[in-house]
Design brief:
single chain; about 350 residues; alpha/beta; 14 strands; globular
């Protein structure tokens, strides 16, 4: 399948567009014309800048910002665009990518997220904008555009000469150029929706988009990172993290395969919170492998309505919980998590 629609380029901030000494973000109306000029000198891709009002350091993103990018792309998708390249920062790239993967599940949109560990333009040259040959930015953006031009379907992250499934990506190094890992996009997905299928998908999303935007201002997902404290302290942390007047979600990052301290008091707290409508998901502090119920030290919690994070990354768990909080009735969230 081919399309005459341009690839929509979205700039959301991050190291990619920083310049000068000290480094500071370039305004979009400075960065993007210079970037497009460089791209047009070497490539013939059909590109169009999609105006975006949410440009910030990615460490400052919040649920409303994630929803902003969902609605920004959704509106263009309604109008026939399918291919998007989103430039953001590395701090929360994995969270944004996983959220968009949840939000656009079942569609035939193509979104490539990219970023860089070093700025695109050489900061030692202040009089004009010259691409830094030692930066990863140029390689990342050109590969992302090249992949998007294949007119594939899915949500991907493009970094370090690799294309990964967006919901699998993790940042594992705070400084190295090879800062990320994930599950490779081994084969491209070329499944496209018929006009009727797309209309049905859009109608479903139209039914809750306004509510999603409104609720995003008041929703959060809490995280507890377990350390060798007494189980009673973990129970207190859970009590403090979850307000029964507003059912929400909590991620418990346990040891190993998801093991956590045990006590009768903690059992009661977990049951009470789940009964109040909260979603509590068990995951691991380990970057790989996920959780299991092989060990008694971890399996007991699943008897008290704790949900398993399986092999999902922390960003993917966060994204799925956030999407459930925004789109699913409180009485159906627990069941829907288990069905996914």
């Amino acid at each position: 399948m081919t399309t005459s629609n341009p690839i929509q380029l979205i700039y959301a901030g991050g190291t990619f567009g920083s310049h000068g000494k000290p480094l500071a973000p370039l305004a979009a109306d400075i960065l993007l014309p210079n970037l497009l000029s460089q791209l047009k000198q070497k490539y013939s891709y059909h590109l169009k800048v999609l105006k975006n009002t949410c440009i910030k350091d990615s460490s400052q993103l919040n649920p409303s910002d994630l929803v902003h990018f969902y609605t920004l792309i959704l509106n263009e998708y309604k109008n026939g665009s399918r291919q998007f390249v989103l430039i953001t920062g590395t701090d929360t790239l994995s969270y944004l990518g996983a959220f968009l993967a949840e939000a656009f599940a079942g569609s035939d949109v193509c979104i490539l997220l990219t970023a860089s560990m070093k700025p695109l333009f050489d900061s030692d040259i202040c009089k004009h904008y010259q691409i830094d040959k030692n930066s990863d930015a140029w390689g990342n953006i050109t590969q992302a555009i090249q992949f998007a031009s294949k007119d594939v379907t899915g949500i991907y992250t493009c970094l370090s000469d690799k294309v990964w499934l967006a919901q699998s990506v993790q940042k594992i190094d705070s400084h190295a150029l090879l800062a990320f890992t994930g599950t490779p996009a081994a084969s491209t997905n070329n499944l496209y929706l018929s006009d009727n299928e797309k209309s049905t998908w859009l109608t479903t999303h139209a039914s809750f988009t306004s509510s999603v935007i409104q609720q995003a201002h008041n929703v959060n997902v809490s995280v507890i990172y377990t350390v060798p404290n007494d189980a009673s302290f973990l129970a207190q942390q859970i009590e403090q993290a979850l307000d029964d007047n507003k059912p929400s979600a909590l991620i418990i990052m346990g040891f190993g395969a998801g093991n956590i301290p045990h006590s009768i008091m903690l059992e009661k707290v977990l049951d009470t919170k789940a009964d109040a409508g909260h979603l509590i998901v068990a995951t691991t502090q380990c970057p790989f492998g996920g959780v299991s119920d092989d060990y008694a030290a971890g399996s007991w919690q699943y008897q008290h309505q704790v949900l398993s994070g399986g092999k999902l990354t922390v960003p993917a768990i966060y994204a799925r919980l956030l999407w459930l909080l925004l789109t699913t009735d409180v009485t159906k969230r627990h069941k829907k998590w288990k069905s996914q």
